[in-house]
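User: Predict the complex with 2'-deoxycytidine-5'-monophosphate.
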Amino acid sequence: MSINIAIDGPAGAGKSTMAKAVAKELGYIYVDTGALYRAVGLSALRAGIDPSDSDAVTAALGLMRVELKFKDGEQRVFLNREDVSESIRTPEASMAASAVSAIPSVRKFLFQLQKDIAAAHDCVMDGRDIGTVVLPGAQVKIFLTASPEERARRRFNELKAKGIAADYESVLAEMKQRDYNDANRDIAPLKPAEDAVFIDSTGLNIEQSVEKIISVVKEKLL
Ligand code: DC
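Assistant: Here is the predicted structure with 2'-deoxycytidine-5'-monophosphate placed in the model:
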């Protein structure tokens, strides 16, 4: 049986950075499930569909082929055979991802894909509902969080480093809006699994956060 580590938490808590580092340390693959929702959101935007229009998005799913591939341990996401790993990172794609992720048919569409990857590989999977819905049997569950201001600061710096224009106040406002959407939707809202270990990364650097997670993993797996 494969070993699965679920890392859930709000946007900007550092899930992907931590999950990637933990996966590397353990020799597991890292699966970023947000990329799947982003690919669906991007697909809706490109088709001129309002990402919050449940009926229109649901109808479009039949024409969407979303795949994850792993090259040298790096995840790439494909939309109808096109590698969209970079195009899904814009603020527009983030908002579209948040909107489509509230649509039950979208979650259903992506559910099996996530299950299959976790069944086939030892992995660290990050998202919002991994420990609660996708992998309730994961051997380790972490709920990673940080203050909204710290998360917005990190996201702002990330965008800046990539040369994407943004200002801190709107990144913070967008972050709070996404937190609200993700936590208050009817289906698979962001909430910690009962058996998740909480880690608050506010004020911790990457190394300190990774160390904390690794110590939880060791405690659970050894
Ligand atoms: O982690 P991220 O920012 O790339 O996620 C993009 C959006 O997708 C986010 O607003 C919430 C949603 N999402 C989700 O609902 N469930 C997941 N497992 C992962 C992401």
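The pocket of 2'-deoxycytidine-5'-monophosphate is lined by residues 11, 33-34, 37-38, 94, 97-98, 101, 127-130, 178, 182 (CB under 6 Å).
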